[in-house]
Amino acid sequence: MNELLITLDRDSSVPLYVQIYDFIKKEILEGHLSPNTSLPSIRKMSEQLKVNKTTLETAYDQLMMEGLIESVPRGGYYIKEIDIGFFHKLDHKNKLNRVKKTESSYQYNFNLDHVDVQHFPISTWRRLTNEVLSDETFKIFNTGDSQGDLGLREQIANYVRFARGVKCTADQIIIGSHSQILLMLVCNLIGLREKIVAVGEPGYSLATNVFEKYGCHIAPISLERDGMNQIELENSGASIVFTSPSFQFPFGNIMKIQKRISLLKWASANNAYIIEDDYLSEFRYSGELIPSLQNLDREERVIYLGTFHGSLLPAINIGYLILPPHLLSEYYRSQYEFQQTTSRIEQKTLELFMRNGHWERHRFRMKEIYKKKYGTIINAIEACFKDKAVVFKGQTGLHIVLEVITSEKEENLLQKARKAGINLYSLSDTWYRQANNPFINPMFLLGFGGLTIEEIENGIAILYRTWF
């Protein structure tokens, strides 16, 4: 090879040898430099690039250490044979994933995870954050309690005690950045590898994914209107069950009292545990809030899981576990040395947000706003679709389930909607085993939390015109 056309930025803070190394490595991995191709000699490259020989030697040495090139005695440097197709496949997958997850192009995004950010008291949150930074500048930057800051745990304990009927102390609460992180902690704590985990069918796939990645076996249990199918659960051999009794995802049904009692009896008889996911239970639009399952627990079988993901902002990644007292000793023995995954600054800010009454006011305000949006999306569907659709009214949460009365395939409708600038989700994705799906007509999940009233009405109207 006569030369490599390398452009060096001599004003950059990146050393010249690193720039040379990066360029050659990129050319090799992208297939522009073929195996067994010779590289220019150090003397020739030094003259061409106007750099000293030590710079070139350092760059070539790094490439040799990584196995990208080799030095042949009295023969120079050559590109080694490597499987660059491996990197091309990874790049292709990453590009596909990026395309799949990019939602900014949708004019009407019925995203299940989006919330109303316009009504979040950002000025209050900013003021409290500044207060945290000014009052506790030094200690707030140090590593805190791996269980989570005590002040926030005390505020959470007060909240769940009065709002959800949860019986606990601050000592039982473990704070983490996300429900999936906390589920991994439960898997480690109880030792669920190779064990059977019962989940609702249909259900929350992100939770199921955590259990599968940990090495658990999944037992999908049919969800009935009043709760899980008790016979299927009894025959599952499960060591733990994941359920959301106050809002059974995705239809939003409530587990009735007898099913709750039966579930607790099952856990006691089988020395099993129940993970109660209480996600968005505070946003119930008719009747009173349903007390938690943990409120009925007398034998310490329920592990309570809560999060502020949907009730504050998704970017404020704060969730929490409430462990039964007898599991605390095992937590301190085996899990306590794990680092806390949530920013101490956000923990302290949320503590002040709750202690000063902002959290309670925000919850009640958002409940009214979401209740109006809930009514808007139902009215819009009924007005546009009439007898061509059925809405499953769960009366809780930030999404609805829509059944479309048509002979067209679900995937076709999904693609048509997205081409029209509308993002929504297929209900089929919530079934662990597709053979268990009893619905013939296409079914979709539409989140309304992040849309305005006008966007909901316009989005539903366009959706109808797109499909019919």
From TrEMBL:
> Mind listing the UniProt keywords for this protein, alphabetically?
Aminotransferase, DNA-binding, Pyridoxal phosphate, Transcription, Transcription regulation, Transferase
- PROSITE patterns per record: HTH_GNTR
Q: Which cofactor does it need?
A: pyridoxal 5'-phosphate
Q: Which CDD domains match?
A: AAT_like, WHTH_GntR
Fetch the SUPFAM superfamilies from UniProt. Answer: PLP-dependent transferases (SSF53383), Winged helix' DNA-binding domain (SSF46785)
HTH gntR-type domain residues? 14-82
- Which InterPro entries does the record match to this protein? Aminotransferase_I/II_large, HTH_trans_reg/aminotransferase, PyrdxlP-dep_Trfase, PyrdxlP-dep_Trfase_major, Tscrpt_reg_HTH_GntR, WH-like_DNA-bd_sf, WH_DNA-bd_sf
Q: Which Gene3D superfamilies match?
A: Type I PLP-dependent aspartate aminotransferase-like (Major domain), Winged helix-like DNA-binding domain superfamily/Winged helix DNA-binding domain
**Where does the record locate the signal sequence feature?**
none
Query: Can you tell me which family this protein belongs to?
Result: In the C-terminal section; belongs to the class-I pyridoxal-phosphate-dependent aminotransferase family.
Name the PANTHER family for this protein.
HTH-TYPE TRANSCRIPTIONAL REGULATORY PROTEIN GABR (PTHR46577)
This protein is called HTH gntR-type domain-containing protein
Q: What's the source species' lineage? A: Bacteria, Bacillati, Bacillota, Bacilli, Bacillales
